[in-house]
């Protein structure tokens, strides 16, 4: 049995939540198969005429970095092209949930000090799917200033 | 599925290596032999960090199984290194 599912059922058994709330929570942790599909294309409507676009589920996160000689000091351009399976990202977030509380606090403090207002402890497996879903629509393009021609591109595919 | 093979390509301006197929599945042999030690280390670390050992095993296993499909390519100074995990 899935751990999230067990937690919800335990909360229900302990009387902390109602059956209706448990139903909502269970529905939330089990994504509907009709909304997320591996199929890339369109599905014909019930009458066969209208077509509904199907949202494709991204499988990989790609990071492209291009830097010229002035940035690296190396001869010729330097490029880094990394393709990471989304599954690895999911596992990575689960790994973050294993970080002890004290380390979480230190990390949050360090991130805040460097201008990243992120609370790692709030990234939980429960909101993982939502996070990845939003990441699928993400494209980050970074171009360097004036003379620096460093390009960073992050996108899902 | 756990990673079975890593393919490594190295190209320099002067020479080009043949694709190096690294049979990662062979690592199962030492992994099985060392499994009691690995088990105890993970168990000890989990208990020291007040974590559920079962959850730690699960997360590490998930990480391992998510590796196939990873592709890294770095080009610098005329040298091109590509690593693919299958």
Your description of this structure?
The complex is a heterodimer of chains A (157) and B (86). In chain A, strand 5 and strand 6 form a beta hairpin. With 157 residues, chain A is an alpha+beta fold. Chain A is elongated. A four-stranded antiparallel β-sheet of chain A has the order 4-3-6-5. A two-stranded antiparallel ribbon of chain A has the order 1-2. In chain A, helix 1 packs antiparallel against helix 2. With 86 residues, chain B is of the alpha+beta class. Chain B contains three helices and four strands. The radius of gyration of chain B is 17 Å and the shape is elongated. Classes of the chains: A alpha+beta (157), B alpha+beta (86). Chains A and B meet through strand 4 and helix 4 of A and helix 3 and strand 3 of B. Strand 4 of chain A pairs antiparallel with strand 3 of chain B, so a sheet runs across the interface.
